[in-house]
User: Which sequence fits this backbone?
């Protein structure tokens, strides 16, 4: 599911998406060595 800024502003519900882009950031304190910085739907 994705809640875009526009959905939030309008008060509309989150929408189902099929693909997302996930941006990872190296984090030595995390078990995997990375953490999620952000994610967003893609087409």
Assistant:
């Amino acid at each position: 599911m994705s809640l875009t800024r526009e959905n939030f502003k309008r008060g509309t519900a989150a929408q189902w998406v099929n693909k997302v882009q996930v941006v990872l950031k190296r984090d030595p304190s995390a078990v995997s060595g990375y953490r999620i910085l952000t994610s967003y739907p893609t087409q």
The two ends are 14 Å apart (CA to CA). The mean pLDDT is 93.
